[in-house]
Amino acid sequence: MTAAVGSSTFAFSPENKAKADKAIAKYPSGRQASAVLALLDFAQRQSGGWLPREAMDYVANYLQMPLIRVYEVATFYSMFNLKPIGKHHVRVCTTTPCQLRGALALVKACETKLGVKLGETTSDGMFTLGEVECLGACVNAPVIQVGDDYFEDVDAAAAARILDSFGQGQWPKPGPQIDRRNSAPVGGATTLKDLIA
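The structure assignment produced for this chain is given below.
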């Protein structure tokens, strides 16, 4: 059973249509539904960071999938937003490794700095604050995700600097916010030092 074709106020831009067709082409004939994550991502980006129902319906029709299957995907993955968000979506990882390194204090610091609680958007529409489960950067915990970038080893002071930068229209440097190279141990190598040239 495929989605019912109806009038929609959403349609892919020519650029996103080309990206969608390229994503679908990666899968065997008749398996176009496998591209649902990619197409929902394109639709969300085109819609300003969230997925209106018209966009999900459009993706379902584009992939010849039942509407409910697309809704299931969109509601399961935390990367999809089902309501409008601010210009900058700030998400604090609250999984165990980040919690052990201060994620709850980081949430409080962000709430204080932005003047909103988790799940809320600032009155100027600049920031939406949320939480996310495991960003997979546990060695550099705690982690904040803003858009597609990770800010790692974040404490309250670093969070304030990051949010201030975004508020001033700047894009701060992602990655570790302490003196660490990528995911190397804090303070540098402790073993196999004689093998490092």
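Interim note for the steering committee: Confidence is low (pLDDT under 50) at residues 1-7. Residues 103-114 form the longest helix (12 residues).
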